[in-house]
Amino acid sequence: MQRLAPALREDDVPLDLISLIKTILAATKEISFRVSQAQLGGLMGSTLDENIQGEVQKKLDVVSNELIKDILLESGFVRAISSEEEDTSVAGDPNGKFLVSFDPLDGSSNIDINSLIGTIFSIHEAIPELAADDPKQFQQPGHKQVCAGYVLYGPSTMLVMTTGKGTHFYVLDRTHGGYLLVERNVQVPADTREFAINMSNQRFWQAPMQNYINDLVAGSDGPRGVNFNMRWIAAMVGDIHRVLTRGGIFTYPADNKNPEKPYKLRLMYEANPMSYLVEQAGGLAMTSEGPIMDIEPNDIHQRVEVIMGSKNEVEKCLSYYN
Ligand SMILES: O=P(O)(O)OC[C@H]1O[C@](O)(COP(=O)(O)O)[C@@H](O)[C@@H]1O
Ligand SMILES: [Mg+2]
Ligand SMILES: [Mg+2]
Q: Is the dihedral of CA 187, 188, 193, 196 positive or negative?
């Protein structure tokens, strides 16, 4: 099995980007170890602090954030970072070539139940003429990403990544400590019978999503004429990994549960990187108004509607909005 660097060179990834990717992955290996030992290392449970999202931070959220932030800011490759756990973007090397947005630990509500969690990252090139602390650095749409990926801390630790030449699967080999390529160019089947949504929010959804989901649930007794199955891991990394592995539609739609916050998932370090991975694997990543990766960001923590996965099923869902 091919190691990471030769696999990336085969995709003509520039050396400095390979070095940056290896830097991020070095932190994920440490996180993978800390996660596996969390009960023993006193890393379960919450801190007393809240992040800018108003969420109580888990101890592992904070530890993972520090590990990734420190290694990136010391690397010299990064002009600035943005993280779910940092209120603002953090300036790095004034000559750094790249910007990294990351969710240090996705699926935090799964930590205490020893279920699937992960780290999500998105890399853009820095805008040369802008200073490291200029928030405009991050006002770049998802289709300008040069790399996106997640590391899934599950029974095995897996890396799923794209640099624009398809989406590939890697596994962390604990014997030699590196990520090995296990599958190149994964493809999301265009059709599916599996959907993922938090059904408990149903009464707060807009009518088109209510109708779409009702027809899925009606199955062979309804207009779709076939039965659909439902899955919800409550960690985007886990739900998207299933979609990339066997197809499916994943959605976190708009809802009016809290009118000030109609969306849940964050554009820069959840929706954009997952969109790049899914679309590089032949799937589709949309809001009800258009492609996620065409959105011009205006805030590093902005939230968006997410409807992504198997192409034909996403288009079917969107047809309810017309
Ligand atoms: O609590 P819900 O509605 O099930 O939401 C689950 C969603 O929230 C998230 O956990 C949010 O991410 P964080 O855990 O990084 O805050 C997603 O991974 C997941 O898809
Ligand atoms: Mg998250
Ligand atoms: Mg998180």
A: positive
For helices 59-75 and 15-36, the axis angle rounded to 10 degrees is 160
pLDDT band at 41 (very low <50, low <70, confident <90, very high): confident
Task: Determine if residue 84 is labeled as part of a ligand binding site.
Answer: yes
**Ligand 2: distance of its center to the CA of 91 in Å?**
22
Whose atoms come closest to the Cα of 85: which ligand? 3
* Bridge partners, 150 (sequence order): 120, 160
Distance separating alpha carbons of residues 15 and 23, to the nearest angstrom: 12
Which listed ligand is nearest to 83 at the C-alpha?
Answer: 3
Asked whether residue 67 is marked as a ligand-binding residue, the answer is no
pLDDT, one tens digit per residue, over 237-284 is 999 999 999 999 999 999 999 999 999 999 999 999 999 999 999 999
The span from the CA of 307 to the CA of 254, in Å, is 10
Quick one: pLDDT at residue 139? 97
Query: How many residues in the chain?
Result: 322
- What is the ipTM for the molecules in this complex? 0.99
* Domains present along the chain, CATH in parentheses: 2-185 (3.30.540.10), 194-319 (3.40.190.80)
- Which residues on adjacent β-strands are paired with residue 56? 50
Flag whether 264 is marked binding.
yes
Burial class (CB in 10 A: 0-12, 13-18, 19+), 31: buried
β-bridge pairing 167-173 and 194-196: unpaired
Q: What is the pLDDT of residues 165-180, one digit of tens each?
A: 999 999 999 998 999 9
Q: How many angstroms separate the most distant Cα atoms in the chain?
A: 61
CA 41, CA 265: separation in Å to the nearest integer? 30
Q: Which of 56, 199, 243, 265 to mutate to test the pocket of ligand 1 (most atoms within 8 A of CB)?
A: 265
